[in-house]
Amino acid sequence: MKEMIAGWRHVFKLDPDRPLSDEALDAVCTSGTDAVIVGGTQNVTYDNTVELLGRIRRYAVPCALEVSHAEAVVPGFDLYLLPVVLNAGSRRWIVDAQLEGIKKYGRLIPWEQVAVEGYLIGNGESAAGRLTESGTDLTPADVEAYAVLAERMFHMPIFYVEFSGTLGDPQWLAAARSGLRQSRLFYGGGIRDGETAALMARWADTIVVGNVIYEDLAAALATVPPVGTKQL
């Protein structure tokens, strides 16, 4: 599991609730990206998740499921990403939802294929920010402390700074970078072209590109070369 994510520099994130043509999916999966993550905040179901997985499985690209709803967990992914929203306003998104999933699936969970993500949500107006009631009025010192918390106390292999829909403050990433030694630093949010991808890749180990796929496919594909792929 750690070996797999260690090779990711660029990943695309696809939402099961958003339509994507076969031609666009082919372009995404053959773009040279290191992996595809399937996940979303709203209207993610077992049916639309398994349908999207089946389409992606025609390609050799690694595919991970970011678990946002226990009812939408589908077998057959290479990796399962389990988010813990560290700055959530409710403990549901820190521990309760995860406990529900453990109680429901118990020994069926393939722990060797699970990676926990310490999420830090930066856009409080995003769907994820509103759902989790995340506290986003943070200083760079706060961000660094969250990064240390995720890595040193909770031993999370991924620290994910998420600005969903808007480009984040590079100072947040610089602060997170300074707090991490081993955990992988993911960044997602507002990456719309090669320039913004390269900017955030200066600090982040892994760049996650999502919304622009559905708005400007050519721009989304242009985010791959500036970041580079499979850098260990």
CATH superfamily: FMN-linked oxidoreductases
Instruction: Give the ordered list of helices and strands.
Output: HEHEHEEHEHHEHEHEHHH
Shape: globular
Q: What is the percent of helical residues? A: 25-40%
Q: Report strand %.
A: 15-25%
The CATH architecture classification is Alpha-Beta Barrel
Order of neighbouring strands in the sheet with most strands: 1-2-3-4-5-6-7-8
Q: How many helices?
A: 11
**Would you tell me the structural class of the helices and strands?**
alpha/beta
**End-to-end gap:** 14 Å
**Cα radius of gyration in angstroms:** 16 Å
Largest sheet report: 8 strands, parallel, barrel
Count all strands and give the number.
8
Weakly predicted, low-confidence segments: none
Task: State the CATH class.
Answer: Alpha Beta
Overall mean confidence score, pLDDT: 92
How is the CATH topology named?
TIM Barrel
Question: Can you tell me about this structure?
Answer:
With 232 residues, this protein is of the alpha/beta class. It has a single domain (2-226), classed as FMN-linked oxidoreductases (TIM Barrel), CATH 3.20.20.390. Helix content is 37%, strand content 18%. It contains eleven helices and eight strands. The protein has helices spanning 2-6, 22-29, 46-56, 96-105, 127-132, 140-153, 170-179, 194-201, 212-215, 217-221, 224-227; strands spanning 10-14, 35-38, 63-66, 79-85, 114-121, 158-162, 184-188, 206-209. The chain has an eight-stranded parallel barrel with strand order 1-2-3-4-5-6-7-8, surrounded by four helices. α6 packs parallel to α7 (170-179). The two termini are 14 Å apart. The mean pLDDT is 92.
